[in-house]
Amino acid sequence: MKKIKYIIMAFACAVMTGCMGGEDFGFDTDWDAPDTQNAYGNANIKETNVITVAELLQRYVEPMTNANDTVLIKDDVQIKVVVTGNDVEGNIYNEIAVKDATGAVLICIAQGGLYGYLPVGKEILVDLKGLHIGLYGNQPQIGVSYTNSSGKTFPSRMSRVLWQRHFKFVNPSKTEVVEPEEFDVTRMQDANYVKACRGKLMTVKGVKMADADGVKVWASEAEKDAGNGVSRNIRIFKDENDNVGNVPMNGSYGAFVVRSSTYADFAAQVMPVEKINLTGIFTIYANDPGRYGYTWQILLREGSDVGVFHNESGN
After folding, report:
1. Distance CA 113, CA 8 (A)
2. CA-to-CA distance for 111 and 163, rounded, in angstroms?
3. Residue 275 in contact with residue 61, Cβ under 8 Å?
4. Whole-model pTM?
5. Where are the beta strands (DSSP E) in 19-122?
6. What's the CA gap between 258 and 266, in Å, rounded?
7. 203-231: b (≥16 Cβ within 10 Å) or e
8. How far apart are CA 237 and CA 247, in angstroms?
9. Is the dihedral of CA 158, 296, 180, 58 positive or negative?
10. Which of 55, 102, 181, 274 lies at a 20 to 30 A Cα distance from 242?
11. Residues 16-35: pLDDT tens digits?
């Protein structure tokens, strides 16, 4: 009798569960369209005191005289920005790149899988009061203040809990098309150009990977074992006759590298030996630009950011 009783109870539970949707338990069962509006961010944020990225940088970053510095944002200000880069293939780590019509900035977040709810093209409103903004090697970032063992203080990764309190989706159902700007290699050391472009989604055309030999990959297993990311030098050309415009680190255009994570999905792919176009988030690192110049770093978002170069004749 006990066995029959348990069988009847189990059958009843199965029937009840089958008749009840996930909505009965407070969650959405439409897995093809997850409710990111309610799952992420702070819906209580009201859009007030929105300033542009350019105004944000001018107000808080421009007064800084150190290459590594940070300041607490005490003013009640917000930015409305679109995501241009994330960790979709593991090359960008614990940060997203965002932009508006006036400029770009990085936001540092101690969380993986950011691409899942912050895809490229998603517009967000960021409440900045209580966060830190500053420079890491002259690259503007938003996060929390951190001082490393060398005594350098800069904005670093905020906790995911803190981040969730400081942003909301502007239009959860809409994703914009984001197009990169073309990078002007002749202005690599132009301080005004640097300030205008650092952190932007851009494309540099007709370059070669200096280390490419048909065998070397973006980031090898040996480099992963060492726990290091990899800097790959880029060779830039002045004209269609392949006259080299800069040998990395020594040319008049300054240094230009691709930063490759050993954990990127494309890390084991062989670097192309031909001329290519490279798209990604263009950041800088320069502790003393007056002495050494600016080092430009491209953070590829995914393998498809490496494209085929076509000259003006279409060949």
Report:
1. 43
2. 10
3. no
4. 0.84
5. 69-72, 78-85, 95-99, 104-110
6. 13
7. bbbbbbbbbbeeeebbbeeebbeeeebbb
8. 9
9. positive
10. 181
11. 444 444 433 333 444 444 45
